[in-house]
Amino acid sequence: MQTQAMELPAVFGKYRLVGHLGKGGMAHVYLAELCGPFEFQKLVAIKLIDRRAVDSKSKMRALVNEAKVGGQLRHKNIVDIFEFDEIDGNWFIAMEYVEGWTLEDLVMKYTAHDRPIPESVAFDICYEVCDGLAHAHELKGGGNLEHDCMAELTWNESGEQRRVVVSLVLSDQNPHAMLSYDEYGRYWNYRVPMESVPCYFGGKRWYFRCPLAVNGVHCGARVAILYKNGEVFGCRTCQNLSYSLQNVTHTGTRADFYRVMQAMRWGGKINKLRTKYWKGRLTKRQRRRIENMERYQDKL
Fold it and tell me: HSE on the CB side for 86, CA within 13 Å?
């Protein structure tokens, strides 16, 4: 199977592909008719795996795990998986076809009118997603799913739309994120290690480990955000990205700001004193605060 979508309609084994539903980093998804005797027909979704993904051991392992685990799940918020097989060297997953709006359609509907999604609708969506994830984790004995979730992110870069597929593999051993995307005619597929720490509110908090190397030395910094400044993702330091304030010394802008705040602070304390004079002379506390305020004002 090539990376381009197939010409439709097309016969694929016992299925007849009639529509193209979408494309991810590892597969095309088609609307298909399951044909049987006596003109039996049933609409299904066929996830046709890209040959490049089949050639990758890690991706193929993730797809096999997706099919095995998905075949055991029975939940209103999780599509059923009917079949995982191969036809003429093309691996595919036959899934339940759910007709209706996608989440992207819903977001576009509101953004087209410059309106945010109502909080009640967003809450219901998050609740149903978590309900389905909870069911999947219960099946695997409390959250040891090898392939936890997959997301597709899109953004605009220099006027061109970019897309990256992120697959999170949060197993007990070797947790990582797989990043897959096309960049200027080259297909990228690499692993970003991840690390978890106990969260104060319960559960785990996950971080990325920077996969880049600087001067031949692997970085591995633990970061919550990955940046892209070129072809690959990495930490802000490896990508040579820094905030402007980090390049200002303590004797520069930030120091001046600190002195202004200190002068205002001492000036406010002077005004709040109830007793400023005693027997016609400034009190000791009043003199000390005036001296501090003048000291910071002289340095401005």
Answer: 9
**Segments making up each domain of the chain, as ranges:** 10-96, 103-244, 247-298
Please list the alpha-helical segments (H only) found in 49-168.
51-54, 57-70, 103-111, 119-139
pTM confidence score: 0.48
Please tell me the CATH code under which domain 10-96 is placed: 3.30.200.20
Structure token digits, residue 161: 């739309």
Neighbouring C-beta atoms of residue 124, cutoff 10 Å: 11
Q: What is the pLDDT of residues 176-195, one digit of tens each?
A: 888 887 776 777 888 889 88
107-161: per-residue pLDDT in tens?
888 878 788 778 888 888 888 888 887 777 776 554 444 445 666 666 666 656 6
CA atoms within 13 A on the CB side of 81: 17
**Cα angle for residues 241, 243, 245 (degrees, 5° grid):** 145
Look-up of token digits 């992110």 = 153
Amino acid code (one letter) for 48: L
d(CA 151, CA 279): 75
Tokens 């797989």, residue located: 178
For residue 116, whether the previous peptide bond is cis, meaning omega lies within 30 degrees of 0, is no
